[in-house]
Write a structure and sequence with these properties.
The structure holds 2 protein chains of 2 kinds. By secondary structure, chain A is an alpha+beta fold. Chain A is built from 12 helices and 20 strands. In chain A, the strands form 4 sheets. Chain A has a 5-stranded mixed sheet. In chain A, strands 4, 5, 8, 9 and 10 form a 5-stranded antiparallel sheet that branches. A 5-stranded mixed sheet of chain A has the order 13-20-19-15-16, with no helix packed on it. The longest helix of chain A is centred in the N-terminal third of the chain and has 29 residues, at 87-115. A 6-stranded mixed sheet of chain B has the order 3-2-9-8-7-6. The longest helix of chain B is centred in the first third of the chain and has 15 residues, at 2-16. The chains are: A alpha+beta, B alpha+beta.
Chain lengths: 442, 214
């Protein structure tokens, strides 16, 4: 809840799920406390109902937060004091109340689960067999990956890929009942099943995604090989009408995302993706299908658990984050980051490898430079490029002299534009500024 | 009755500690990216859940001065990297200016799991203005003083109470202590402690500490 509310533009409605969970948990506590036996001796069996609630808790609408509440009932029961022993009747009352609460929690969990369509789709996901791409990604050139400890790997493994969503519980969308609806300002409405998608010619593309919340030097960027159906083809099939300028996508968790139509149609590999790094999309990353559009921050392009694409206009239909004050359109700003040496590192004088990644999706990175203590900019060595839509690793060999030093990095894209030094926060359209790191050389 | 109230408010505190909305990789870590490369980590607003072991309530007489809502509130700060969190907090504006002058913003935001003893505006006001101006103009000296307020690792109130000296990133140690519920570090008192940010535990203090060799 705090995460949702701390975002600029959060509304009171964003707190409702957590507040509802809190209210439910508080009500359970009060009921149990009233039913708790009065003596310490009688209180001991009270732990069992507490534990049963713990078992039922995590599935409830309160999600992981509600599960943390389960520690309380035994403490209350034990703390009720030693005033006499009305044990048998009280214990029965407590156990019944506890069982009732557990049943209620399980029921709420079931209801909550049913409302969210929640059971686990992991086994169904495990049965998906992705076809080979009709259009494979071009071979990754040799040298995209510099061998250096601490440097971000060129491809981000699925398990480490950053995750940003508004969900207390991830949508569990079974692939056999999932459909994608394409509608709005179209000549022909289309509905596709997952099987339909897998029968289409699939394209593979290496694309770096970036979250608008990524601060300068932050970790909310990742690179993967995506497999999917080109969105341009799907939209053309639906015959988009003149006047439409936005694809408003909707997701199984209620998220809506607005994407400029021209970005989807201009030839960049915008995909309705079903595969990530050779596997079906992980549940946390949008199973069974998501959008991936290079060059745009995720909140304007990367709809997970996508269920609907509506051709419309920006004027008519603002999406979720736009309603909360983020820019309606947000191309990814050119950025670079220092991965090694680490902040406050203590290094030995002499050769030190300074390295990191830089990105300018759709434009490509042309140069990366490093400056020591505000001194002249030194050209870093760039790893080989894998197209314009992914980041590039870079490395610079520093002859480090003793003392306290500040290293700074900046990147230039292939249009010749150097990233701005002007500091901007993530809100409303992405952070900017040159990353830096302070280290001590002995 | 009292215990029921404590339990319910304990619940509220747990829930207010924040559910995850944003995490760099697996949900186990609140600060470092768990990918094997471990890039210099930072977390943005709506970042990973506050580290589980240190979600004791914030304590101290001046915690009420912290904004009740928005980016500078306790829940707002919990999901932001430490320099960003501090810049949202009016109580720490002089410190933030000093950090910017020293060029330490990204370094503090990207450091993994640190503890920051953050002098509040009143602490800086105790320094004669001529002295303060001189320090702010001397980047090396300023960095030395600021790094004397940062330690590697997230220290809990219990660790401060133990009195065991804490090695700072400047190199010298600071000595924490606790007496009658009141916490201190060197000659400074903790006015609001155990404030959680995405990558750092913060103790707001009322005096700027001077490193021994300064």
């Amino acid at each position: 809840m705090s995460a949702a509310l701390s975002l600029p533009g959060a509304t009171a409605g964003d707190a409702v799920p957590t507040l509802a969970g809190l209210a439910a948990a508080a009500a359970v506590l009060v009921v149990l406390a009233r039913a708790a036996p009065r003596s310490r001796a009688a209180a001991r069996p009270a732990r069992e109902p507490g534990q049963r609630i713990a078992a039922a808790g995590p599935a409830g609408p309160g999600g992981p937060a509600a599960a943390r509440a389960t520690a309380a009932p035994p403490d209350i029961a034990a703390a009720q004091g030693t005033a006499g022993d009305r044990a048998p009747a009280d214990r029965r009352r407590f156990l019944i109340a506890g069982a009732g609460a557990a049943a209620l929690a399980a029921g709420c969990g079931g209801l909550g689960g049913a409302l969210l369509g929640r059971f686990s789709v992991s086994s169904l996901r495990g049965q998906v067999r992705l076809p080979a791409p009709a259009v494979p990604a071009p071979a990754v050139p040799a040298g995209t990956s510099l061998r250096l400890a601490g440097l971000t790997p060129f491809f981000t493994p699925n398990a480490s890929f950053y995750r940003v969503d508004i969900d207390l519980a991830l949508p569990q969308v079974p692939p056999d009942t999932w459909t994608l609806r394409i509608d709005g300002m179209v000549g022909r409405e289309i509905e596709l099943t997952f099987a339909d998608l897998l029968r289409m010619p699939l394209t593979e593309a290496d694309i770096t995604l970036v979250c608008v919340s990524d601060e300068v030097g932050g970790p909310y960027a990742g690179n993967a090989r995506w497999l999917g159906v080109p969105l341009a083809g799907l939209l053309r099939r639906a015959r988009i009408k003149a006047g439409a300028d936005q694809v408003l996508s909707a997701a199984a968790d209620g998220m809506t995302i607005s994407t400029p139509l021209d970005a989807v149609l201009d030839g960049r590999p915008a995909l309705l993706a079903v595969g990530m790094n050779g596997q079906p999309l992980p549940v946390a990353h949008g199973f069974p299908a998501r959008m991936v559009v290079p060059g745009l921050y995720g909140y304007t392009s990367a709809t997970k658990w996508v269920t609907r694409l509506t051709a419309t206009t920006f004027a008519a239909r603002p999406a979720y984050w736009t309603q909360r004050g983020y820019a309606a359109q947000a191309p990814i700003k050119t950025e670079s980051r220092i991965d090694v040496p680490k902040p406050f590192a203590r290094l030995s004088a002499g050769p030190v490898a300074v390295a990191g990644v830089a990105w300018a999706p759709t434009r490509g990175i042309a140069a990366v430079e490093v400056s020591v203590d505000g001194g002249p900019w030194q050209r870093a060595r760039l790893a080989a490029a894998d197209g314009p839509d992914t980041w590039r690793q870079w490395m610079w060999a520093w002859d480090a002299a003793p003392g306290l030093h500040r290293l700074q990095v900046r990147a230039t894209d292939r249009t010749g534009a150097t990233q701005t030094s002007r500091r901007a926060p993530p809100f409303p359209d992405g952070a900017s500024g040159w990353d830096s790191v302070v280290v001590t050389v002995a | 009755m009292k215990y029921r109230l404590v339990a319910v408010s304990g619940l509220a505190a747990c829930l207010a500690a924040g559910a995850a909305a944003c995490s760099s990789g697996s949900s186990s870590s609140s600060a470092s990216s768990p990918s094997s490369s471990a890039p210099a980590s930072s977390s943005a607003p709506a970042a990973a859940a506050a580290s589980p072991g240190t979600t004791a309530m914030d304590f101290g007489p001046a915690c009420s001065a912290v904004p009740k809502s928005g980016a500078g509130s306790f829940s707002g700060m919990a999901t932001a990297p430490v320099a960003t969190a501090a810049s949202a907090n009016p109580v720490l504006s002089t410190l933030v200016a000093a950090v910017k002058k020293a060029g330490l913003v990204d370094t503090l935001n990207s450091a993994s799991n640190i503890t920051v003893f953050a002098p509040d505006n009143a602490a800086f006001a105790k320094i004669p203005s001529a002295t303060l101006a001189k320090v702010l103009a001397d980047k090396a000296e300023l960095t030395k003083i600021l790094t004397y307020h940062v330690a590697s690792g997230r220290y809990s109130p219990a660790q401060l109470a133990s009195g065991k000296p804490i090695k700072t990133l400047e190199g010298a140690t600071v000595t924490p202590g606790e007496a009658g519920g009141s916490y201190a570090v060197n000659n400074a008192h903790v006015v609001c402690g155990n404030v959680q940010t995405a990558n750092a535990t913060v103790y707001i203090i009322d005096t700027v500490m001077m490193p021994p060799s300064s």
